[in-house]
Amino acid sequence: MKSVPPRSICLFLALVLSQLLCADLYVIRVTSPTTLALPAPKTGKEDFYQCEEGAWQPLATEATETGRRVSVSPKMTGPSGKVKLLLGKPSWMLLDDSQPPSLQTITCGGKQHALAKDGTLTLTATEGASFSLRFHVSDAKNPVDPSFVSFVFSTPVRRAVVPVLKGLDGLSKEGWIEVMLANLEVGRYEGVLRVSDRSAAQNTLDVPVRIHVVGVSVSEDRQTVRLVNQAAEFVFQPHLSQQLLLPDGQWAKLTTNMRGVWLYPREFTEVKVTRPDAHSQTAIVRAKVQGIKGKPVNGLGELVFELTVRDDSNALFVRSRSVNITEESVSCNANWGWLSASSYTLPEGAREWRGKSHDAYIGIGKKDWLWLAPTKKGAKGLVWISEQVFGESRFDTMLLYSKKGTCAKGQSADLQFAIASARDAEEACGIFEKLKELGCLGKDEE
Questions:
Q1: Domains annotated on the chain, with CATH
Q2: What is the sign, positive or negative, of the torsion defined by CA atoms of 413, 414, 420, 425?
Q3: What's the pLDDT tens digit per position in 228-252?
Q4: What are residue 12's phi and psi, to 5 degrees?
């Protein structure tokens, strides 16, 4: 065979798929006619080429001791100059196959589950749960490839789980994939089941899986609390501004004014997890305070938080108490929020922001609930539920206010609310009504 000048051909990817296809697949970029000696299996005798994504065409080759002698030219390529060569096609392979394996059923705990509208399998479990996910897959044209089946978690940490295969022997077009999960800790888990067929295109099915293990977990240093319900994960930590991480990626914060001093959580001094009832877990958190410049403020106030998740609700339930620890009565009030939105909706209708245009804090009043529209296209907004007073900041962000007044020693400025993801105002109203029905909404104690 003649030598190949370096500039006449570029073998940019030689994807040898002997185990996958019982054939060798090469992707070559050609700039001038040339002849190559390529390894190929001896089992299959048919050879083909494909121009870009067009139909496969028979390819004339010459057998050698180690494979094939192949002549290629730019006429065989598309605009990119690339051509695919399939050497040694097995008799069972159908070349006209552009569709991945299909998912027939999903079973967990003896019950069938359907994918959500976005194609994701979403499940809820309890702490320490162990169960198996059983996926029934099939392919219309080519066998499912047992060597290209995987299940990998990407969240909270990247971790592969080796699936158990049943009925997938390499030539079968149908079978079952079982993923065993054991002793799951509280958290939000995201992974993907990936299944390929044995076509020349190696068509691949991806099934995203999301599992919420409901409950409360506390970091080793006791400074981070994670709360997971059936739909979302919330994170709580001591900080000037980044205190409570919400499902839309925003941080809500508690701001307290006590005797004219602005206070924020500085360090958690106690974190206790309780189970008020069969459906709930609550983190009770006590915190030292810091001033607006991040320096400790001692002897003035303490912050107490109760954060609750339920296995029958998408909401996080929050109660905060800004407690006077001095020996004298002091002025005291607090607010939660500084949450952004493109607009917001009250029970009586949609509203546009006015705070920034008026350079003023604008009261909204007691509204039971409001919906904060997302700032990003395709994202969900937030429903904020409370019997206390809402208002706009002069930065076009939403606030929830406590009552202003004087607190004696041990008394506090309290705030209580529920918050959850909601795609629109209608869903926000539905979440509010469900929480009322469940009896989850606390009364304004002021």
A1: 9-89 (no CATH), 102-213 (2.60.40.10), 219-438 (2.70.98.30)
A2: negative
A3: 998 999 999 999 999 999 999 999 9
A4: -90, -15
- Residue linked to tokens 């299959």: 44
Residue with structure tokens 């569709």? Answer: 99
Beta strands in 325-438 (DSSP E): 330-339, 344-346, 349-351, 362-372, 381-392, 398-401, 405-407, 412-422
Rounded CA separation 396/382 (Å): 15
Q: Whose CA is closest to 91, among 50, 44, 48?
A: 44
| CA–CA separation, 136 and 166 (whole Å) | 10
Cα distances (angstroms) measured from residue 18 to each of 42, 253, 412: 11, 58, 72
CA–chain centroid gap for 308, Å, is 21
284-308 pLDDT, tens digit per residue, is 999 999 999 999 999 999 999 999 9
Alpha-carbon distance 181 to 232, whole Å?
20
